[in-house]
Fold:
Amino acid sequence: MRFGVVVFPGTWSDCDFHYVISEVIRQPVKYVWHRDRNLADLDCVVLPGGFSYGDYLRAGAVAGKSPVVEALREFVANGGYVLGSCNGFQILCEAGLLPGVLMRNECLQYRCQSTNLLVENVETPFTRGLRAGQVLTMPISHGEGKYYADAPTLAALKARQGIVFRYATVEGQVVKAANPNGSVENIAGVVNETGAVLGLMPHPERAAETAMGGTDGLLLFQSLLGTLVEDGTFLKR
Amino acid sequence: MKLRVLIRLKPGILDVQGAAVQRALAGLGFADLRDLRVGKLIEIDVDAATPGAARQRVDEMCRKLLANTILEDYTIEAIEAERLAPR
Structure:
């Protein structure tokens, strides 16, 4: 499986993703510059965290209109997978590849902490190796992670099982106290209609080795590898 | 042609930035402060044949990038004549 990790001016999690993909799950990976439109040789594009374009205007707004993100539409239409974490999630929302938007944290603080995530949808390419109701532990690190969508959008999202992760207690209780940023209904991650585009505020790449305090993030990568074996992507290479 | 774009959070959207600024002002003794919301102001100089064409162009800019209409409303106004006059 060939991964591309997109680098914008101001991206900071690109090296972490590159390391996890090349050294932990041992798959081919390359960096993709934000002006690059050619994604034809990739199976999965990762939009990492950081502060693309200094978060000017709105977090992810400028990056959301960049050449590489414009090219993602065709990439997804051709069967590609996209994983956006943190700033990557903000970019996917700003680009309209995912519904909703990320706003400034309700607490007004930058939150860098561990979170527990209740897995709500295990039918996506990124979560098929998980159990519904499973609780994963992954860190967050953001100032603008409050997910918001208006009522009709939220209803449509729920109706199609688009909510993948919610902030929860370690026992899996979705309560206000477990919500680090004021996200509507504790939403931490969503997928698009086809399931091929996942956005989440937590950092799976920072929870991929026991030395880093946990490996729950690795489960997303492993699920995706399983998907690609099953859909024949590996055989086509 | 110079135009000014005002971008505001939609009514009903919680403005945490505005709330923090409001609390700070209250702490400075502005007890009469009833509400405060923070927005953005963008001044744009656009090459256009008519004011209508300029406005249309800026409207397009707002929809494509400057405002996120999930959260924000925007208004476009012409910058006053005195600022348009040559120096």
Observations:
- Strands of chain B lie at 2-9, 40-45, 72-78.
